[in-house]
Model the fold of this input.
Amino acid sequence: MKSRWLSLSGLAAVVLAFVGLSFMGDTPSLDTASSEIVEHWTEAANGSLASVFLVLAVPLLILFGSVLLRSRGEAAGMDVWAFLAGTGMAIAAVGFLIAGGLAAATADAVNASLDDVVVSLHAFGMRSHLVWWGGLGLMAIGGGGMAIGRPGFRGLFGWFGVVVGIVAFTPDPSGMIGAIGSVLFIAVTSVLLARSE
Done:
């Protein structure tokens, strides 16, 4: 029973990340005027704090899932794929910690009326997604590789994980598609692992 709930940590991480990021609203792009960036963060100040708490819970759930996934892979003799999946999830966890920390720092800068700092932190935050995108992509490659060769849907879905994981490392807009596909892979894999318990 405990391992079944642990298996669902991946799905829980996806849900919390989605809800947390939704509190941030429509985040301005890097070429947006500084005044509009400051205005966005001022309006989203309360939501950004809620987002920080939710996003900072994501790394813990990701690490729980990575322990289970890696142990499953190693038990099946798939050490390389398991290493890739575990490493990818660890990188993703660090990426979410960075994103949450930057959001908290930006909210503090807004409260202190440090507009230039707000704009600079916003720029860092907009680029920090590359860390967890890469982590999710690597996890999808490793997790997908572990499933390749299995019969039926799981084998086909393994190929899906490898493909979207590779695409996540390409430039936007395809990189974003790959990252979204990697998130979908994690959510579905989490459910499949729970059902197999």
